[in-house]
Amino acid sequence: MTTKNATIKDVAREAKVSVASVSRVLNGTGGVTPQTQKVVREVAARLHYVPDSAARSLITGRTHTIGAVLPDLYGEFFSELIRGIDLAARARGLHLLVSSSHDGVDDAAAAVRAMRGRVDGMLIFSEYVDAAFLDANLPAALPAVLLNSAVKSARYPVLTIDNRGGASAMVQHLIESGRKRVAFIAGSKTNFDAQQRDKGYRAAMAKFAPDLPLNIVPGDFSEESGYRAGVELLAQKKRPDAVFAANDMMAVGCLMAFKQAGVQVPQEIALAGFDDILIARYVSPSLSTVQVRIADLGRAALERLAALLDPDANTPAPAQTLGCDIVVRETSGGSTGAASTRRPRRPPK
């Protein structure tokens, strides 16, 4: 039998199941055992069966496509986040449509509006999103999950990282390692993650170094801003003995500034970041950081959205916070090379 124009009936016959079962498997509507799902997908792949998405959408009222609006598509954090979302989507027979909103609120609104009618649900990760933004740009009937957002709404589940707890735990580690003058390279003032990490730094300093002044220099999550911050910190009359950057990219830029100035890390100044992107393990010296399981964040977000799309699933909780750990490497006196010590976060009480 030729496989060029295989039909759903061909798949059902080869898999020895009904057409309805094949349809449920490929549409991700449930009601089929895992073993049957496996057999149907294997047969469909072997026969090179491609569903008629247009006809299927007319019948089911679904596009089997998920939209994701992210702050940017550049850098290791977002590529890893997309990977986690995509793997979870493909496991459910869903396609992924991705856009960015790095040029401001109008750009974010345009990205959301462009996906209306083309997706069954959306994942939205943008600093420009608030209740008014959602009311203006997102149809009430379109399911959506928000990532790292301050929005509190029963309509939209919110999935966040414990930014404050992770930042607090890293500052505590630096201080307990014998450092006192801990400086902080902040992220954008309008960014929710940056705001929470700033709060974590302040809380830990108030608890563990209450007699010392805060030392906060601006950044924007880019390597360039981390480099500029490093130069600024080295120009201070009393240099810090530790620097905590609000993300790893800024920490890497700061490390370059220190290297160019001949400053030894961690002997003279300890350094740490946030996110645990891949490069953190392989820069020299290797970077201590707060570990966010980025792909898991994407997977969890997609799973929450999939639950909203499934009428038989339990309604997700309105908010969920994912914990993170601190990873101690060379820049704060940890072990050599890419090896590391992981410690559970311990936010100040």
Per-chain topology:
Layout: H1 8-15, H2 19-27, H3 34-46, H4 53-60, E1 65-70, H5 76-91, E2 95-100, H6 105-115, E3 121-124, H7 131-137, E4 144-147, E5 158-161, H8 163-176, E6 182-185, H9 192-208, E7 215-217, H10 223-234, E8 242-245, H11 248-260, E9 270-275, E10 288-291, H12 294-309, E11 319-322, E12 325-328, E13 341-344
Parallel strand pairs: 1-2, 1-3, 3-4, 4-5, 5-11, 6-7, 6-8, 8-9, 9-10
Antiparallel strand pairs: 10-12, 12-13
Helix pairs in contact: 1-2, 1-3, 2-3, 5-12, 8-9, 10-11
Q: What count of helical segments does DSSP give?
A: 12
Helix content: 40-55%
Structural class determined from secondary elements: alpha/beta
Q: Number of domains in the coordinates?
A: 3
Strand-residue fraction?
15-25%
How confident is the prediction overall: mean pLDDT? 87
Strands of the widest sheet, in order across it, are 7-6-8-9-10-12-13
GO molecular function, one term: DNA binding
Protein name: LacI family DNA-binding transcriptional regulator
InterPro entries: HTH_LacI, LacI/GalR-like_sensor, Lambda_DNA-bd_dom_sf, Peripla_BP_I
Domain HTH lacI-type: 6-60
Model description:
One of its GO terms (molecular function) is DNA binding. It holds the Pfam family LacI. There is one protein chain. With 349 residues, the protein is of the alpha/beta class. The chain folds into 3 domains: 8-60, lambda repressor-like DNA-binding domains (434 Repressor (Amino-terminal Domain)), CATH 1.10.260.40; 65-162 and 294-322, Rossmann fold; 163-292 and 325-344, Response regulator (Rossmann fold), CATH 3.40.50. 41% of the residues lie in helices and 16% in strands. The protein has helices spanning 8-15, 19-27, 34-46, 53-60, 76-91, 105-115, 131-137, 163-176, 192-208, 223-234, 248-260, 294-309, and strands spanning 65-70, 95-100, 121-124, 144-147, 158-161, 182-185, 215-217, 242-245, 270-275, 288-291, 319-322, 325-328, 341-344. A 7-stranded mixed beta sheet has the order 7-6-8-9-10-12-13, with helices on both faces. α11 (248-260) links the parallel β8 and β9 (270-275). α1 crosses α2 (19-27) and α1 packs across α3. The longest helix is centred in the middle third of the chain and has 17 residues, at 192-208. The radius of gyration is 24 Å and the shape is elongated. The termini are far apart. The mean pLDDT is 87.
